[in-house]
Amino acid sequence: MEDNASSSESEDIDEEESEEEEVDMKSFSFGELQELKAKLGVKVYREAMSNDYNRQHRKRDFKRASKNRPREMSSKKPPKIQFAKPKKEIRDPRFDDNCGTLKPEAFRHHYKFLDEIKDREMVKLRKKMKKMKDPDAKTAIKTSLQRLENQVREQKKNDLKRETLEVEKEKNLQRMREGKKPVFVAKSVKRKAALEEQYLALKKDGKLDGYLKKKRKRLAAQERKNLPS
């Protein structure tokens, strides 16, 4: 029993001595390291440096001695903190009450400058189409020009309709101030007046013949579609 005790004590002493012998190689200066390398030799010096590196970078065991104890965490790794990401809301101003109510008159007033931009763009496209020799490119320019012309024509139609309604509203308000009943124009009469205004505008711009030709083609295609097969 005494031999076993003495042997265990000697092992503990050897372990303590070996732990005391461990030296941090970082504490040596460059000159001291070179001198140590010359004394030990290249092979032994590399082994010593490798053992020192492994000793400094060996992983600690953070296992719990008991499941009831809290787990020990490494201080080198910062804890992962997860923040709840705010949900990104996509709002459409056309259907959002927070964006206010659409006022067509105010909208048209603020964006009326777009008419001038479209007019300048149409002039450029007409000039470009005259100079263009490639048939495919010419067709593409013509399509863009027609799209802009349709937008401008539709906008003028809507403007005329809105102006007619405003005039009618003002007249009815005036009649009510005078103690008279308001007069509402039938939709058929409004439609006829709008067509007359549209024809006059097309005739003024020299586009009436082209408009009537396209309309006849559209009506003919619709009639052929409605014919019984």
UniProtKB/TrEMBL annotation:
- List keywords of the entry alphabetically: Coiled coil, Nucleus, Ribonucleoprotein, Ribosome biogenesis, rRNA processing
| Matches recorded under InterPro entries | RRP36
Instruction: Offer a single GO CC term for the protein.
Output: nucleolus
> Acidic residues bias: where?
1-23
Biased region (Basic residues) positions are 56-68
Q: Where is this region: Disordered?
A: 1-28, 48-101
Q: What GO terms in the biological process aspect are recorded for it?
A: maturation of SSU-rRNA from tricistronic rRNA transcript (SSU-rRNA, 5.8S rRNA, LSU-rRNA)
Entry coiled-coil feature ranges: 138-173
This chain's function reads: Component of the 90S pre-ribosome involved in the maturation of rRNAs. Required for early cleavages of the pre-RNAs in the 40S ribosomal subunit maturation pathway.
Describe, as the record does, how this protein assembles with itself and its partners.
Answer: Associates with 90S and pre-40S pre-ribosomal particles.
Q: What is this protein called?
A: rRNA biogenesis protein RRP36
